[in-house]
Amino acid sequence: MNKELLESAKQARKQAYAPYSRHHVGAAVLTKSGKIYSSGNVENGCYALTICAERGALYHAIANGEFEFEALAVTNGSAELITPCGVCRQVLWELAGEIDVIMFTSRGKKVVMNLSKLYPKPYKKKSKKRLLKHRKK
Ligand SMILES: [Zn+2]
Question: Which CATH superfamily does the domain covering 2-135 fall into?
Answer without folding.
Answer: Cytidine Deaminase, domain 2 (3.40.140.10)
